[in-house]
Specification:
The protein has 13 helices and eight strands. Helices cover 43% and strands 14% of the residues. It is an alpha/beta fold. Bound molecules: glyceraldehyde-3-phosphate. Glyceraldehyde-3-phosphate binds next to β8.
Length: 262
């Protein structure tokens, strides 16, 4: 897989949220696999984050057809096992050969009251079981209007990475998702994305060191589409995108993966 000038391979991840059942998931991944060619995977890492109920089907397809698409879950329990009704554990996700797990998505923070402490425990649970976290951070509209987006987002980062050793932190993926841009069609400008993604890299250098910070991939998320992805990806500290709505359309997702062609 080829890396960019930065040395970081871009990661395009489709977060399906609560969409597509397991049969639709198979059809969708087959469509992606048919459209994507070796040259796409050489330039970009491609991943999907389906609902839990789809993961076994996606695993069977990816394994059986030896697909290069990676997959992961949208959440993980901080616990390994036990009386936690409705939760899905790290060992279960590892058994399904998930590569990634999204942690702290703003919808989890908003609807399930997940705070930085919970995100921190989930990040540690992911590493404990060999899963790579995609840690989501980002400010709401009120914070943005107050001009506090950088400080707010860095505080979330700081909290979620508490006591995380460098050997783990160096492989984490951070997704900067301004909440006001999620599912609204209101995309942050490339400069808005760079401001916070650059600050995230700076914070990683402060918490660890510059070498580690330069390895970490930082995605932008929030109304990413084929028409705006190239300008966002042109920013020096943006190494991919976490795509919601547009990832549900296979043709559109493939165009996003091929952002270089635009
Ligand atoms: O995880 C993905 C983000 O929440 C972005 O969603 P969106 O592309 O539908 O705005």
């Amino acid at each position: 897989m080829a890396a960019s000038v930065s040395g970081r391979t871009p990661l395009m991840a489709g977060n399906w949220k609560m969409n597509l059942n397991h049969l639709e998931a198979i059809a969708h991944v087959q469509k992606l696999a048919f459209a994507l060619a070796d040259k796409d995977y050489e330039a970009v890492e491609v991943a999907v984050l389906p609902p839990f109920t789809d993961l076994r089907s996606v695993q069977t397809l990816v394994d059986g057809d030896k697909l290069k698409i990676k997959y992961g879950s949208q959440d993980i329990s901080a616990q390994d096992s036990g009386a936690y009704t409705g939760e899905i554990s790290g060992p279960m996700l590892a058994k399904l050969k998930c590569t990634y797990v999204a942690i702290g998505h703003s919808e989890r923070r908003q609807y399930h009251n997940e705070n930085d402490e919970i995100c921190n425990a989930k990040v540690k649970a992911a590493y404990k079981h060999g899963l790579t976290p995609i840690l989501c951070v980002g400010e709401g509209l009120d914070i943005r209007k107050a001009g506090q987006q950088v400080q707010y987002t860095l505080n979330q980062l700081d909290g979620a990475l508490k006591d995380l050793p460098a050997e783990q932190a160096e492989s984490i993926v951070i997704a900067y998702e301004p909440v006001w841009a999620i599912g609204t069609g209101e995309v942050a400008t490339p400069e808005d994305a760079q401001e916070v993604c650059g600050a995230i890299r700076g914070k990683l250098a402060e918490l660890y060191d510059q070498e580690l910070a330069d390895k970490v991939r930082i995605q932008y998320g929030g109304s990413v589409k084929s028409g705006n992805v190239a300008a966002i990806m042109a920013q020096p500290d943006v190494d991919g995108a976490l795509i919601g709505g547009a990832a549900l359309d296979a043709d559109e997702f493939v165009k996003i993966v091929r952002f270089r062609d635009q």
